[in-house]
Design a protein that fits this description.
Radius of gyration: 15 Å
Order of helices and strands: EEHEEEHEH
Largest sheet: 2 strands, antiparallel
Strand order of the largest sheet: 1-2
Number of strands: 6
Number of helices: 3
Strand content: 15-25%
Structural class: alpha+beta
Distance between the termini: 24 Å
Length: 105
């Protein structure tokens, strides 16, 4: 589910708000398919657009914030880890934390 955009980054999560035992596989699948889709767009348009994908797994805090315009907000070190993975990742690659990689094995 789309949560929000942060600058030029797009944040999405799996396993929230309902627990999902396959959340790690689903978010990894999404990351890989985003790369595939970007390749297809580039081929069709003769462009060289690139994206970076960073993923992490772990606990987060979630809640509703706001009074007039409510928003679903996420916070926690797992979110910060995912943002760090994206920010330091190589273009057209999925970079994940060690904890995420272990969960996918």
């Amino acid at each position: 589910e789309k949560i929000k955009t942060i600058g030029d980054a797009y944040l999405c999560v799996a396993g929230v708000p309902k627990k999902d035992n396959q959340h790690q596989e689903k978010i990894a699948w999404l990351g890989l398919n985003l790369l595939k889709l970007m390749g297809e767009v580039n081929s069709a348009t003769q462009q060289n657009l690139q994206i970076r994908v960073g993923i992490a797994a772990g606990p987060i805090y979630a809640g509703i914030v706001g009074y007039k315009k409510m928003a679903y907000e996420l916070q926690g070190s797992t979110l910060e880890d995912a943002m760090q993975m994206e920010a330091t990742g190589r273009p057209m690659m999925v970079q994940c934390t060690k904890f995420m990689a272990q969960g996918l094995q």
